[in-house]
Design goal:
Helix content is 85%, strand content 0%. It folds into two domains: 1-53; 60-85. The protein is mostly helical and 85 residues long. The chain is flat and about 45 Å long. The chain crosses the membrane at residues 6-25, 32-52, 64-84. InterPro entries: Cyt_c_oxidase_su4_prok. It is a multi-pass membrane protein.
């Protein structure tokens, strides 16, 4: 299990990533800011899942299973969006 210093560092990084989203929309065009926000969101998801949900300490098979579940949710979301149109 990670120590308090690691959790504090991850918290600061998450705070910086959240601030970065605001900065992108202030200083860049909408398209660039949206793409950068998606990249930052993926980075935040990986940090939260890895450290706060302790997936970094789990066997790789569980991590792959979680990744597959996220991919399936993505596919269902795309299919639902396609059926609405």
């Amino acid at each position: 299990m990670a120590d308090v210093r690691t959790y504090a560092l991850i918290y600061v990084v998450l705070l910086a990533l959240g601030t970065g989203k605001f900065a992108f929309f202030e200083f860049f065009t909408y398209e660039i800011a949206l793409a950068a926000t998606i990249v930052l969101a993926v980075a935040k998801i990986l940090l939260i899942a890895g450290y706060y949900q302790h997936l970094i300490e789990e066997p790789r098979s569980i991590t792959y299973m979680m990744g597959m579940a996220v991919f399936m949710v993505f596919l269902l979301t795309v299919a639902a969006g396609y059926s609405i149109q």
